[in-house]
Specification:
The protein is built from 15 helices and 15 strands. By secondary structure, the chain is of the alpha/beta class. The chain folds into 2 domains: about 5-60 and about 325-435, Aspartate Aminotransferase, domain 1; about 60-325, Aspartate Aminotransferase, domain 2 (3-Layer(aba) Sandwich). The strands form 3 sheets. A 7-stranded mixed β-sheet has the order 4-10-9-8-7-5-6, sandwiched between helices. Helix 9 packs parallel to helix 10 and helix 13 packs parallel to helix 15.
Length: about 450
Amino acid sequence: MSPQDTALQVDAANIPHWYDPDGEVLTLADGEGVRVRDDDGDEYLDFSSQLYCTNLGHSEDSIVQAMVKQARRLPYVSSAKRSPPREELATRLAEIAPGDLSHTFFSISGSEANEVAVQLAREYKDASTVLTRWRSYHGGTYGAGSLTGDPNTRATVERHAATTGAAKFLPPLPRAFDTEDPETLARRAGEHLEFVIRNEGPDSVAAVLVEPVAGSSGAFPAPPGYFSHVRDLCDEYDVALIADEVITGFGRCGEWFGIETENVDPDILTFAKGITGAYVPLAGVMVRPELAAFVRREGFDLGQTFGGHPIACAAGIAAIEAYADGPIENVRELEPVLRDGLEELAAAHDVVSRVRGRGFLWGIEFAHPETGEPFHDPRVDQGTNPVSDVLKAARERGVLFGGGRPSFQIIVAPPLVATRTDVEQAVEALDEAIEAGFE
């Protein structure tokens, strides 16, 4: 074995997720608040919240203390049994959840939570098909990958085995329905969804699964009235409405849950990421009383060893208390600062075609000013992507942003505890990075 091969083996001891052999993997060693530091001691503003999950920053000691206390008391309880932190967290969630969501099935990751939600909906509705949007992301496991509308994820998952049971509909994007008018867009997108439901056969459709505000697929909110239309369609055709709140939950959009910004109540809600502020993995599915009663009557013969881990549930309780102590209000207060800064940035750079979002979840899309087409669309183009250069230039200026799906966009998603100064510094760095990336 050559020294080069040995070096490759050492490097591959840990294989990063979403690994790109041509990319550069950053090593982060420590952090505090909204900042992280790499192994060379360089500091960055964390304006991707890592994977849109470190909502409370990197030094919320109350969560750490809650985890330590539970670890010393009883570190693990079978997921088939009850434990005090599980019961308390489920009660707390019912208190803050939208509508009459009342019971929680705990899981580990957002992918698994979405799979459980779909399984529950299929059992309850006695139907198989679940409708999800193109350009959505609901997870990368086989079940969740079939729900995901992002072509890169689905192509990877389905390369060697087909997935079934999901059908797709178009998201309410202006280009999809050839209109910039919000009212017309909401109407056309709603009519399109109804067509898909009727085309599939309403009796075969168990659920519509959708993010209240798109996450890594572009941070696009729906036009006013769209979600009311979706809710009405679900009621008319007896279809469950599942809100995927893996990213939008726990304050990111300025309310406890993103669907609350639409004044619509879902039948099922999935969560992950922010439930513990990412201090430890935890996810879950919240359901309405009638679905909970169905499970109590029929049973549910599925589970996971670490679903609702007691230490994670203790972290979740502490996180809810931390959220209630100001971060969500901070998002509402600083949303105009972030929005205005990004819109001013868009006005200054003709390569920025759109800025959209809600709360602390925003997307910036890049396109040729003359044609409106992406500079690089990974779904059809080969070669270099100038948006990657923008992300690199931002990192060189001390700010981490997220890459969107598809990668002709950037996602801006700071921790909920970011200050006005943090926001202004991040926007300034992005302004300079766009200039550098497209020079």
